[in-house]
TrEMBL record:
SUPFAM superfamilies: Fic-like. The lineage of its organism: Bacteria, Bacillati, Bacillota, Bacilli, Lactobacillales. This is Fido domain-containing protein. Residues 63-213 form the Fido domain.
Length: 253
């Protein structure tokens, strides 16, 4: 197994939930089979461990509805990033924790509210559409987008969707993982376009948003090149004291 490529995938996956450990730290954790090299002041250990468990689960169950549910069912390492009922399909009529809304703008009122009740048939539809497609990388990314928009689980939906999209085209065997944009600005634009996909009211609007998502993803050539690169020391030492002025602020505090 190429731990460098897997480390890049897990780091990309973790970026969906503010994973703070570097690719080098993540590779060391894979090499040592221990979370000790990871940042210990956040939820990185849970994201790392559950990503590996989720991958193992869908490799066992295959790309189908049971396999997708089995990914989320592995998100049970204690962390605030986890669903309170892993693998449980939301039903807001019976469980208050299943009532969710996704903030898509700068204000609390700018939200996307997914369906309140999710059934296996909703996931079946996404899986069936993929198997009727040409099963290309773009079709796998559509699995990611549609599962993310559906929000079938209490939490960890985008992580579940990215693992499922990779399983759809069997990247876990070939180690040519689908990953998010490499740099922060492209990744932010990708997320914005995913939010556009969420709030789309028609197939036409969804298609337009999806095309914008694809436009900022790394090309297959660039992605495969990076995945094959050895992980180098990523420590950055500043020679002067400088003041950092972030333009993207964490509004969750």
């Amino acid at each position: 197994m190429n731990n460098s490529a897997l480390a890049r995938f897990i780091t990309s996956l973790g970026s969906l939930n503010n994973y703070g450990s570097t690719v080098l730290q993540t590779k060391k954790a894979l090499d040592l089979k221990s979370t000790s090299p990871l940042n210990q002041d956040n939820d990185d250990a849970a994201i790392f461990s559950d990503a590996l468990k989720g991958i193992k689960a869908i490799k066992k169950n295959g790309f189908n509805t049971d396999g997708i549910i089995s990914i989320n069912a592995q998100f049970n390492t204690p962390s605030k990033e986890q669903p309170s009922m892993p693998g449980h399909l939301r039903n807001a009529y019976y469980n208050e924790d299943d009532r969710i809304a996704i903030v898509v703008g700068t204000g609390a009122l700018e939200t996307y509210i997914p369906p309140e009740v999710i059934s296996r048939k909703d996931i079946d539809k996404i899986v069936d559409e993929f198997y009727r497609s040409r099963r290309r990388e773009n079709d796998a990314w559509l699995v990611f987008a549609k599962l993310s928009k559906l929000q079938p689980f209490q939490d960890g939906n985008k992580r579940t969707a990215l693992i499922a999209a990779n399983a759809a085209i069997n990247t876990f065997k070939k180690e040519d993982y689908l990953v998010l944009p490499f740099n922060d600005l492209d990744r932010a634009e990708f997320t914005i376009n995913l939010m556009r996909f969420y709030v789309a009211k028609s197939d036409k609007e969804e298609t337009a948003a999806f095309k914008k998502m694809l436009s900022v993803l790394p090309s297959k050539k660039d992605r495969l090149f990076l995945l094959k690169q050895p992980v180098e020391n990523e420590d950055r030492k500043l020679t002067k004291t400088i003041k950092l002025k972030p333009q993207f602020r964490d509004t969750r505090k």
